[in-house]
Specification:
With 366 residues, the protein is α+β, with helices and mostly antiparallel strands. The protein is 34% helix and 13% strand.
């Protein structure tokens, strides 16, 4: 289909322009110290054990980096990687094993940007079979993301408290797990603080059937900072879904990291040695430089934007959730203000039935 539209396919681009020789392939064996994404992020985290420490750390981060803008993301389990749903799907298809799984100490080959584009092209072809070829590709991916479908888009929010709510959201599967809060700077340190902090995606970039990144070969991607970590494209879509407004939601758009020897120096273990490409790819599918939230921010030559991470202790989840509800009015009804959210609530929590029917034996309300 792409070739019929006059757009070069991934296979065409591979012939036209091979990656520059200094690009390091995203493959290899895990480091001995790597135990999963949790071990990757833990060297740069601040621990949050109360609502007071949550608000204090958010305030401290904002104070130490005036002019720097952030988008936020919350994970219910601190051990989860910072991956898009499509990247996770491709990891499964490739048989990627994480530490602790059988075969995890063998060489792992992670998806690259060409694999992501091929998968997205297949999604667009499938959407045409469902008579959805009239929708712009980026909007289709956003709608799929909101409905739990695979896309490269990472859900983020402009509000740290919305992200914190997602991190501590009630879930019996993760109730005993520490959570994680991410703050992703939208520009590298030392950038122009008077700028919006993120590029504007104009109509020409968001309205086409095929997303703007489909036209790029490896050289174009580097020149456009697509997959280099130096430019965070944050897209705030139209409010076609009530959750977009209620969650102050946006999408983080980024290419699969193009690792080089220079940028790999930024990813240090606690002993100051470098993480390998397999360690980094198993931890995140975007380029982000983990920095301890309390350390001074310094510009780096490669211009990679920083990421800050906070571990929320499992024991603090309930209290933080309660205070977010009482102080900020954040409930399941306000965060998921639609029929789908109501349906999920009614099927997962039967408290609304409490006291309605007498006990068949005791004759007392249940």
């Amino acid at each position: 289909m792409l070739r019929q539209q006059g757009i070069a396919t991934v296979e065409d681009r591979r012939v036209e322009s091979e990656p520059k020789p200094d690009v390091v392939a995203t493959e290899g064996k895990y480091s001995n110290e790597f135990r999963g994404p949790d071990s990757f992020f833990s060297a740069h985290e601040v621990v949050i054990d109360s609502f007071e420490s949550l608000t204090a750390e958010i305030s401290a981060l904002a104070s130490k980096s005036p002019g720097m803008r952030f988008v936020w993301r919350g994970h219910q389990d601190a051990a989860w990687g910072l991956h898009s749903s499509l990247y996770r799907r491709l990891m499964i298809e490739r048989g990627i094993k994480l530490p602790g799984e059988a075969g995890s100490r063998e060489r792992q080959t992670f998806p690259d940007e060409d694999a992501m584009v091929r998968a997205e092209d297949a999604i667009l072809a499938e959407a045409a079979e469902w008579r959805m070829s009239d929708q712009p590709g980026l909007e289709l991916f956003a709608r799929l993301q909101h409905q739990g479908g695979p896309s490269r888009l990472l859900d983020v929010t402009r509000s740290p408290f919305v992200a914190a709510w997602f991190a501590v959201e009630a879930n019996p599967k993760t109730i005993d797990h520490d959570a994680r809060l991410f703050a992703l700077a939208t520009t590298p340190p030392g950038g122009d603080s008077s700028s919006p902090g993120e590029p504007v995606l104009n109509e020409a970039m968001t309205g086409g059937r095929y997303p703007f990144w489909f036209l790029q070969d490896s050289s174009d991607r580097r020149e456009a900072d697509w997959g280099t970590g130096a430019l965070r494209r944050v897209w705030v879509p139209p409010v076609y879904d009530p959750r977009i407004a209620s969650q102050n939601a946006a999408f983080l758009l980024e290419g699969v990291p193009m690792f080089t020897k220079e940028t790999l120096r930024l990813f240090k273990k606690p002993d100051r040695k470098r993480w390998g490409t397999a360690d980094i790819a198993a931890s995140m599918s975007i380029y982000a430089r983990p920095v301890h939230p309390r350390k001074p921010l310094r510009p780096v030559k490669s211009n990679v934007a920083p990421l800050f991470t906070f571990r929320i202790k499992a024991a603090a989840k309930a209290d933080i959730r309660s205070l977010l509800e009482s102080a900020y009015g954040m409930t399941t009804a306000t965060v998921y203000p639609d029929v789908q959210g109501l349906s999920k609530r009614l099927c997962s929590d039967f408290g609304w039935l409490a006291g309605m029917f007498p006990d068949p034996i005791e004759g007392k309300p249940t």
